[in-house]
Predict the 3D structure of the following.
Amino acid sequence: MGSLHGDGDPRRGGHHRLRGAAGDAVGGVLVGSVATVNRWAARNAGRLQQMWMLVLTVAVAGLVAVSLAVAQRASLAAAKAAEAQRIICETGNQSRAAQRQLWGLVLELSAQARPHPTPEEQQRAARFRAYIDATFAPRDCGQLLSGVPSLPTSTPSR
């Protein structure tokens, strides 16, 4: 048994917080418990390793499954956004075509009102028509997936 006063020798229970018989009892249980756990761990090391490998495998598989689900949703959202962008582009092209028709009608009526325009008026009307054609030119909606649709780069001189 350990000493009642704790002489510092752990083999005799000298380092217990509780002194005397109570300290010996607690120390014996703790030392016995640690030894028991160590023996159990030594006997079951292979099983413990297998259990941890199974836990890690399940965790990694779960992470992969969640990543695939998130990637699939992101891909679907991107496809829907691309389709919406294409529809918007085509709607814009229809609007630009209507604008070209409207301005073409205005230029035609203007030409009818003045059957004999001067060369300067003809030149101004041609520049205006070129400006309208460039401003309301249709965009390439197929180019949307590779970037921003190209805008007309040239504007006629005035």
About this structure: The helical segments are 21-43, 45-113, 119-135. The CA atoms of residues 38 and 137 lie 81 Å apart.
